[in-house]
Amino acid sequence: MKIATWNINGIKARIETLLTWLQQAAPDVVCLQEIKSLDENFPGERIEQLGYNVSLNGQKGFNGVAILSKHPLEDVRKGLPGDPSDTQARYLEATVSNGGGAIRVASIYLPNGNPVESEKYGYKLDWMDRLNQHARDLLKLEEPLVLAGDYNVIPSDLDVHDPAGWAEDALFRPETRAKFHAFANLGLTDALRACHQDANQYTFWDYQAGAWQKNNGIRIDHLMLSPQGADRLRACEIDRFTRAWESPSDHVPVWIEIAA
DNA sequence: ATGCCGGGCGAAGCCCGA
């Protein structure tokens, strides 16, 4: 089973690109971030025509996450627990059943947090604490689990073209990385790093300053697996070719192959 | 280069992203 994550930066602007990639890559499950759409305005019918079920946690104008699946989506959870006052659409979780077994899948759009001096950084850190707590609860189930999405976290120096230049950024500063490592240390496997250890495994290139042409990228889109999920991991790849397509998202898809 | 692009909203210019 092929499970992907992709921050598409607006479904309205990316629907044709998404449909092209879905037909070409043929993933079984896709976690989307930044759909920037209300549920009722999401072009679900065109995606359903390709054989996908669609589950949404949308929001007007920005944020918004989705899960697409060729298999039924069950027990859908909208929103990350722990703060009823949080109205931003950044989390969606569902169980994918493919006959043989079930996998719990989450689509995550973790807050950016810049500028660090603003309340946005505190919101990011609080959100990471809530994600950590929820992951603890999910891991207690001891089942295959894939927490996939745009984490807005650069895990290590290997994952950024210019570590020194990013040192104080909300995506890379020590406090951010410490929380991400605490999360991973609950027992979650970074699928890309389980399969590839070399540098330059980027998933995002800014639209500005020729970042793509210069390969000034960062790795911030991750698939994090429970032990039961990691046991079944067979491959993890980054579809960086989509960044060269016309009118691309600034993120590219990342996917894993899991033994059925 | 804490906004150079690009998207959304909504119909000009501002908010947002990383």
Approximately how much beta-strand content do the residues carry?
25-35%
Quantity of strands, as a count: 14
How would you state the average pLDDT, rounded? Answer: 97
Detail the poorly predicted runs. Answer: none
Widest sheet: strand ordering: 3-4-2-1-14-13
How many H/I helices?
6
Distance between the termini: 6 Å
The string of secondary-structure elements, in order, is EHEHEEEEEHEHEHEEEHEE
Biggest beta sheet attributes: 6 strands, mixed
Shape: globular
Radius of gyration: 17 Å
Q: Helix- and strand-based class? A: alpha+beta
Helix residue percentage = 10-25%
Question: What's this entry about, in short?
Answer:
This protein has 260 residues and is an alpha+beta fold.
Structural notes for this entry:
The protein has 260 residues and is an alpha+beta fold. The protein is built from six helices and 14 strands. The chain has helices at residues 11-25, 44-48, 119-139, 174-184, 191-195, 227-230, and strands at residues 2-7, 29-33, 53-57, 65-69, 73-78, 91-97, 102-109, 145-150, 189-190, 204-205, 217-218, 221-225, 233-238, 254-258. Helix 3 runs parallel beside helix 4. The protein is globular. It binds one DNA strand of 18 nucleotides through helix 1.
